[in-house]
Amino acid sequence: MKKQPTCPCCGFDFEFKPVLIGVPFQCPNCGKQLRTSQLYAICIKSIALLASIAIPLYFGFRWYYVCLAAALLYAPSYYVAAILARATAPPNLEDASDILTLVQK
Ligand SMILES: [Zn+2]
Smallest Cα–Cα separation from 35: which of 24, 27, 45, 43? Predict the structure, then answer.
């Protein structure tokens, strides 16, 4: 069984809690701002983009329909990729408070 994401500050187990990918969120136990690594978010988005393009290509759509279908399929592809990624390779969570203080300045 794969290790579930845990808070790096307090060790809270996110096994039954949703983890936002690429967006800072608050740990429900200690209140720290957390986020997944940027590389993890980029990988999920890349997989979703490739799947949303590959699916209409597989069914033989013309290029302009491929673009339209890819735009429509990106969100569901992202959702499926995120679920599969969490089940097979759970994200490491990092402290996002340093990022947020940079943004607030
Ligand atoms: Zn915590």
Answer: 24
